[in-house]
Amino acid sequence: SIGEHTYGQNIYPNDVMTAGEFSVISGPSKSKKSFLKASFAAAFVGGNFNNHFENIKGHRKEESECIIDFDTEQSSYYAQRSFKNVGRMVGGQYANYYPFKLRRMSADERVSFIGQYLRQNQYKKNIRLVFIDGIADLVNDSNDLVMSNEVVEQVMTWTDIYDIHICLVIHNAHGIKKPTGHLGSSVTKKAETVIFVSPEENDKSIINVECGYSRGMAFDQFSFQIGKDSLPHQVNGINPNEPEGYF
Fold first, then answer.
1. Which of 8, 22, 147, 222 would be 166's cystine partner, CB 3.0–4.6 Å?
2. What is the DSSP string of 191-210?
3. Cα separation of 216 and 200, whole Å?
4. What is the pLDDT of residue 240?
5. How far lies 246's CA from each of 208, 225, 227, 236, 242, in Å?
């Protein structure tokens, strides 16, 4: 969840990623989407995560619940750096976080690998949260309507059969708050939550996070910046020109 809302006399979290649904993180190339993805994974784990974001909360119920993280486009060097950020944000490695680099596979091989992994391991590993960082790499042409619908239907099937949440990461063009191609349109229509990330116009080091669409209560926009520790930190309410006391 991200933030809270009041209903009647009670305060409830703003649901962003629930079981049996999928969500989308969308932003321009090199806009720190993978840092936000790692932050969601770290929030699910817990630990020291509140030192980075005060509004993102994880709701993991058991120590055995697993996170699976599929990266489709980064090289080994950058993928392992991204994967290690999860442990660094929580203050130690989480035994039930399983990252995979799928760069060398074809689109069909990636779909087959993810499907087979979920089928063989869901009940053995108690998978709850899955990331696919590069959903466009699961189709040969993200502008093909049939291919796009098929891969989104596959994602919906996985979430429904295994009662898991899948978070997808996808590009959009600079200045346009719309995921690219027919695939982008398909995921936007079906997703529980669509989250847009974009660099601040006057300071590219600040990344704004906005709730584009949500089935539940929309969360308030917030921002983050990569600190001196090379990790993301929320910067709302902090002068970005004087960050030394925060980083």
1. 22
2. -SEEEEEEEETTEEEEEEEE
3. 26
4. 43
5. 18, 11, 8, 11, 9
Q: List the Cα angle 114/171/154 in 5-degree steps.
A: 30
> Which of these, 204, 145, 174, lies nearest to 26 by C-alpha position?
174
Name the pTM for this structure.
0.92
pLDDT tens for each residue of 78-118 = 999 999 999 999 999 899 999 999 999 999 999 999 999 99
Report the b/e string of 6-25 with b at 16+ CB within 10 A. Answer: eeeeeeebbbbbbeebbbbb
Return d(Cα 227, Cα 96) in angstroms, integer.
27
Q: What is the dihedral of CA 226, 229, 230, 232, to 10 degrees?
A: -40
Other C-beta atoms closer than 10 Å to the C-beta of 97 total 19
Nearest 10 degrees: CA dihedral of 198, 200, 204, 206?
-90
Report CA dihedral (76, 79, 82, 85) to the nearest 10 degrees.
-50
Mode of pairing for the β-strands spanning 222-226 and 4-7: unpaired
Residue 77 makes CB contacts below 8 A (sequence gap 6+) with none
Pairing of β 222-226 and β 203-214: antiparallel
The predicted-structure confidence for 9-49, as pLDDT tens digits, reads as follows 999 999 999 999 999 999 998 899 999 999 999 999 998 88
